[in-house]
Amino acid sequence: MRLEVDAGNTRAKWRVCDHRGIFDSGKDLQTALAEKPSWKALVEDVWVSSVHDDQNEWILQVFPQAQFAKSQVSQSGLSNSYEDVHKMGVDRWLAMLAAWSKFPDQSHIVIDAGTALTLDVIDEFGRHVGGYICPGFSLMKSSLLGGTKRVMAEGDWQIGRALGSSTQDCVDHGVQDMVACWLEHHRALQPNARIWVTGGDGQRLVSLLAEPVLFEADLVLDGLQIHFS
């Protein structure tokens, strides 16, 4: 049995696999271990993508055999544009690695909609052209509400992009329209690229778009398998 972990800024997604496929999965590793302690003893290999040092310490305490993925100069035909490749978040690298490995020799745009919102472009030769790191949906909203005195809205989201007729709609639709327009702009710049969306807010982003994209909830974990294979 193998445990694969995607430890992001706010959660640690996980799945347990064997030679037949996925045995179990979830979005909170600590809760899963508390609720299902029995499978911990069955795990032999532990592969981890992590952007959080505190999570790393906890994972190593629980699973001393854990192996942590690192961004590479190149792998499986994909090359990194960073001068210091280890400064690229490993989750970004693994998501790109998964997308490229699924459809090599094509251009790709890979978006991870989590606490941070990242967008990376790969050309048809497997070269990482570059990318962006921006605040995610919730960070944009909390920044607006925290930095203004008379703009007030509830924490729950009103999904949509239309012009708002209340402060709640104006805030929520404004943030969501900005993100969707940003992605649509880059789609127009790369009309032949496959568009991949992953991350905790990925499904929300997909629901805002007029044109279809590829949503893969486990794109980082898929890249983790390629990295260690």
Based on the model shown, name its key terms.
single chain, Nucleotidyltransferase, domain 5, five-stranded mixed beta sheet, 229 residues, alpha/beta, 12 strands, 7 helices
In short:
With 229 residues, the protein is of the alpha/beta class.
Summarize the structure in words.
- By secondary structure, this protein is of the alpha/beta class.
- Helix content is 35%, strand content 26%.
- It has helices spanning 29-35, 53-62, 90-102, 137-147, 167-189, 202-208, 219-228; strands spanning 2-7, 12-18, 21-26, 45-50, 67-68, 74-75, 78-79, 108-113, 116-122, 128-135, 194-198, 214-215.
- The longest helix is centred in the last third of the chain and has 23 residues, at 167-189.
- The protein is globular, with a radius of gyration of 19 Å.
Annotated CATH homologous superfamily of the largest domain? ATPase, nucleotide binding domain
**What's the quaternary structure here?**
single chain
- Residues in helices, as a percent range: 25-40%
Question: What is the mean pLDDT?
Answer: 93
Rg is: 19 Å
Q: What percentage of amino acids are in beta strands?
A: 25-35%
Total helical segments: 7
Largest sheet: 5 strands, mixed
Low-confidence stretches: none
Give the CATH architecture of the largest domain. 2-Layer Sandwich
Query: Structural class of the secondary structure composition?
Result: alpha/beta
